[in-house]
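Thread title: Can someone regenerate the structure for this chain?

I was given the following input by a collaborator and told the matching structure tokens would be attached. They weren't. Posting the sequence so someone can regenerate them.
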Amino acid sequence: MRVAGCTGHTNAESVILKFSERKVPMSKLGQFVVEFLKAEDGPTAVEYAVMLALIIVVCLVAITALGTSANATFGTVGNKIGAAGS
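Best answer:
Regenerated them for you:
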């Protein structure tokens, strides 16, 4: 089966070509990361890692608090429904 716009390529070859075209942006991303880590101006990667760790801790605390509150709310509603059904 021939694909429109792909001269001489089958459908499978077209898919393979599309996957190989995606490697270019990933190599650019890799180059950016290497250059970013080599740069000594501005915040370092360690500072970013510390900020990320703090953000994760805050998110976990917030999720735990919301989960506890939601559990209490559902428990109260369940008890009231159970009492009303009796």
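The mean pLDDT is 77.
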